[in-house]
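SEVERITY: medium
COMPONENT: batch folding queue
REPORTER: lab tech (J.R.)

DESCRIPTION
The queue accepted two submissions in a row. Attaching both inputs and their returned C-alpha cells so the on-call engineer can compare them side by side.

ATTACHMENT 1
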Amino acid sequence: MTYRVEERLPGAMVVSIEGRITVENGDGAFVRAIEAVLASRPSQVTVDLRKVTSIDSIGLGELVAGYLRARRAGCRLAVVHANERVLEVLRVTRLSTFLIEYAC
C-alpha cells in the first residue's frame, strides 16, 4: 500500500491510497498518514480508494482507527471512490453507513 496526501482546498485534505490494505501491509501506515494529516488541523479528510484493489479485516481496522482519530480531532473523514469489491466489504460490515460519502 502506498499513499499520497494533498490539500485540495484550504482545510480539505485528500489521502489517496493505492494497492492492497491487508494484513501483509497493515503496519499502521494508513493511521500514521491520517495522524500526519490531522496535525495540520483540517476540517475534512477525504480518503480516495479508487486505486485500492482489496481490503481485509486489518485494512478495515485501519480505516476505523483513522475515522476515530479524525472524529476526536473534530474533523470529518469520508471514504470516496471505492471499487465494487471494496464497497461490498464496507457494506457487509456496515462500515459504509458512516465511512462512505456518496455525493462526490
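ATTACHMENT 2
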Amino acid sequence: MERKTKATVLVEERLLAEVKRLVGRGEYRSLNACVNEALRMLLAYEHRSRLEREMEEASRDEMFLTDIKATMEDFKYVDAETARRLT
C-alpha cells in the first residue's frame, strides 16, 4: 500500500454531501477512499488528454509523419511474417 499523507481541502458542500451519500450506501469504503479514487480518475483523464493533444500535434508534424512512414517501411516484412504466423 502506498504511503499516505494528510491534506486539508475546501470542498463544495453539495459535492461533499453527495460523496457522503455514496459512502453511506457502501459505494466506497470511506470518504478518503472516494477522494483517492476521484483523484486517480482525474489524473488518468488528464494523462489521456495530454497524450491525445500530443498525438494531434504529431499528426500535423511532417518530420514525425516521415519518420513513421520510414519505420513502417523498415518493418513491413517482419510485420507480414508475424501476421502470417498468427493466422
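NOTES FROM REPORTER
Residues 31-58 form the longest helix (28 residues).
No errors were logged for either attachment.
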